[in-house]
Amino acid sequence: MAAATVRSIGSNLAKNLREIRLHLCQTSPASQGARDFVEQNYVALKTANPNFPILIRECSGVQPKLWARYDFGKERSVALDNMSADQVASVLETVVSKQ
pLDDT digits over 14-37, tens only? Predict the structure, then answer.
């Protein structure tokens, strides 16, 4: 399902967003879904959006979060604690469609 969501987003990331940051821990069970999402979908997202900044930030012990930066510096974050890769994809789809 995550792959289908990523395909539906396609090259529309830059339509509403200016940057996406994904903060996660390399070892924490709470970050497992975020790690799985990155492993399974980062290449497809980056291939569809080669000039769009998609930043992956790994830090030991950090709470997994997705940060979306919109026009005029407006930012929104969503906690990804204990989510699956599919749930992370749904969160990404939600932040892409909002402003």
Answer: 778 899 999 999 999 999 999 999
